[in-house]
From TrEMBL:
Residues of the full protein shown: 482 to 757 of 991
Keyword Cell cycle: no
Any GO MF annotation of the entry: translation initiation factor activity
Region named G-domain: 11-159
Name of the protein in question: Translation initiation factor IF-2
Binding residue positions for GTP: 17-24, 63-67, 117-120
Species for this entry: Thalassoglobus neptunius
Keywords of this entry: Cytoplasm, GTP-binding, Initiation factor, Nucleotide-binding, Protein biosynthesis
Gene transcribed to yield this protein: infB
Chain ranges of the Tr-type G domain: 8-175
Localization (cell): Cytoplasm
Purpose: One of the essential components for the initiation of protein synthesis. Protects formylmethionyl-tRNA from spontaneous hydrolysis and promotes its binding to the 30S ribosomal subunits. Also involved in the hydrolysis of GTP during the formation of the 70S ribosomal complex.
Record carries keyword Signal: no
Coiled coil: none
C-alpha cells in the first residue's frame, strides 16, 4: 500500500475503420451532435475525443480518420485506447483500412467490438461480413469467437444502446483504475492554433488531475495552463483521468502524439521541453 487510492476511470474507446464507413456519424449519434456535416468533403482529417454519459457511466470516445493518408492518426488512436470499436459498413465489408485497423488494435492488445454499420441499407449480407472478419482474425462471438458484432445504423440510431451496453460490459470486465490525486500526465491528440486563444492542445488526461495554473510541458512546448475547455467548448477548472480537454497557455502549438506532464514550476517545464 503506497497510500495512493485507485479510482475507477471512464474507458477510452477509439473508433477505427475504413473511410466513410460511418465512424463520425456513429460518434455524432452517441453524442447527439453533428460534427460530420461540418467536415470538408465529408472526410475526417483529425483525431478528436469526446466524453459521453450512458446510464450514469462515462465513456470517452476517440474518433479517427479512415482515409488511407491518415494511418499515423489511426495508430495514435489505437495507442491511447482501452478498447476499439471497429466500424465496418455492412454494404462494403472489410476493406484495406479495416485490415490496417485490425492490426493496430491487435498490436495495442486491446479488446475489439465490431459495429456492423449501415444495417438500414437493403440487401445486406451479414454472413459475408462475418466471413471477411474471421478471415482477418476477428472471430465473431456468434461463431464461437470472442468478438461481439453489434448491428447498428448510425444514421437511424438503431443498435446504439446495444453497442454502448457491450462496451460498458467489456470495460467492467477490465476494471480500469487509476490515480486522480497526483499531478496529471497524458497525451496530446492534436495541436492547433486558435485565433483568439493562441496555441491549443487537444489532449487526453491519462492519470491524475490537470488544473488551471499547472505548469506543463507538452512535447517541445511548455507553459502554464491558463484556461481549459471541455469537448463542447465550455470552460472547465480541472480535468481528471480519461477526460478530453483543450489546454490554452502553451508557448507554441504542440505536436500531435506528444506526451504532456505537470512539472514543479515553469522553469522545470521549460527545461524539459527544451531537452525533448
Ligand atoms: P471518415 O472519417 O472520413 O473515414 O468517414 P467516417 O467513417 O467518419 O464516415 P462518416 O460518418 O463521414 O459517414 C460517411 C457517409 O456514410 C455519410 O454520407 C453518412 O451519412 C453515411 N452513413 C453513416 N452511417 C450510416 C448508416 O448507418 N446508414 C447509412 N445508410 N449511411 C450511413
Ligand atoms: Mg469521420
Ligand atoms: Na467521411
Amino acid at each position: 500500500d503506497f497510500g495512493i487510492d485507485l479510482v475507477a476511470r471512464p474507458p477510452i474507446v477509439t473508433v477505427l475503420g475504413h473511410v466513410d464507413h460511418g465512424k463520425t456519424t456513429l460518434v455524432d449519434r452517441i453524442r447527439s451532435s453533428n460534427v460530420v456535416d461540418g467536415e470538408a468533403g465529408g472526410i475526417t482529417q483529425h483525431i478528436a475525443a469526446y466524453q459521453v454519459g450512458h446510464n450514469g457511466q462515462k465513456v470517452t470516445f476517440v474518433d479517427t480518420p479512415g482515409h488511407a493518408a491518415f494511418g499515423e492518426m489511426r495508430a495514435r488512436g489505437a495507442n491511447v485506447t482501452d478498447m476499439v470499436v471497429l466500424v465496418v459498413a455492412a454494404d462494403d465489408g472489410v476493406m484495406p483500412q479495416t485490415v490496417e485497423c485490425i492490426s493496430h488494435a491487435k498490436a495495442a492488445g486491446v479488446p475489439i467490438v465490431v459495429a456492423m454499420n449501415k444495417c438500414d441499407l437493403p440487401d445486406i449480407n451479414e454472413q459475408r461480413i462475418l466471413t471477411e472478419l474471421s478471415q482477418h482474425g476477428i472471430l465473431p462471438s456468434e461463431w464461437g469467437g470472442d468478438v461481439e458484432v453489434v448491428r447498428v445504423s448510425a444514421l437511424q440510431g438503431t443498435g446504439i444502446d446495444d453497442l454502448l451496453e457491450t462496451l460498458l460490459l467489456t470495460a467492467e470486465l477490465q476494471e480500469f483504475r487509476t490515480v486522480d490525486s497526483i499531478p496529471a500526465d497524458g497525451v496530446c491528440l492534436e495541436g492547433f492554433m486558435d485565433e483568439g486563444r493562441g496555441p491549443l492542445a487537444w489532449a487526453l488526461v491519462r492519470r491524475g488531475t490537470l488544473r488551471i495554473g499547472d505548469n506543463i510541458c507538452c512535447g517541445t512546448s511548455f507553459g502554464r495552463v491558463r484556461a481549459m475547455y471541455d469537448d463542447a467548448g465550455r470552460e472547465i477548472q480541472e480535468a481528471g483521468p480519461s477526460t478530453p480537454v483543450k489546454i490554452a497557455g502553451l508557448d507554441q502549438v504542440p505536436s500531435a502524439g506528444s506526451r504532456f506532464l505537470v512539472m514543479d514550476d515553469i522553469e522545470q517545464a521549460r527545461e524539459v521541453a527544451e531537452l525533448r
